[in-house]
Amino acid sequence: MIGIVIPAHDEEAMLERCLQAVREAAAHDDLRGEEVRIVVVLDACSDGSESIARRHPVSVLPIQARKVGVARALGADQLLAQGARWLAFTDADTQVAPDWLVAQLGLQADAVCGTVMPDDWRGHPPEVRHRFARDYLDRDDHRHIHGANFGVCARAYRQAGGFPPLSCHEDVALVQALQAMGAHIAWSARPRVSTSTRPQSKARGGFGDTLRQWAVEECPALALSPQRGLSLPRTTC
Description:
By secondary structure, the chain is of the alpha/beta class. It has helices at about 15-25, 50-55, 70-80, 100-105, 125-135, 155-160, 170-180, 205-220; strands spanning about 1-10, 35-45, 60-65, 85-90, 95, 110-115, 115-120, 150-155, 185, 195.
């Protein structure tokens, strides 16, 4: 059995499209009928995320941690207890490709770190899009780590200790633990996902904060223009 974990915090605007895409990936012919179970971990949600999730054939796990590391770990624990051999992780603001699971499994690695493709650059100055194109390596042998596009076999996940209970960078910590134990990690652009470019991150230090930081670095005047929605708080995890 393959398991998919999707943490969500107030994601009613994007969760429906995420779940439709994940379900399509779970039904891919090349999986040859292997069962895929999906867990949506609703972390401190106060919007309509739960009602959206319950319209789909997924397990819904409400928690009050407000820590994405806790959410991913609890979802993984539930699936491992049910016998999952492979765990795939994405985010509620992300849409995976139809062959997402097939691509992860086809790499025959202990873990797979995939890339992300921004879904829409509206709301960002063009300099941010240009910096992404210049600096981001959307190719094999990259070294990007995204919880929105990550997979790991059950054995390696357990041996590495799983996701730590962090508010951000829990994905980085797990990959570092996998590297320390000598796991075979595929740094691949084959598993494809499209993720939100919203400048307001659900977790401090997330992808949205990175884009906002780039906006300030590339266009310093934006730091003085909070009406643009891009003024970046100088905080880290």
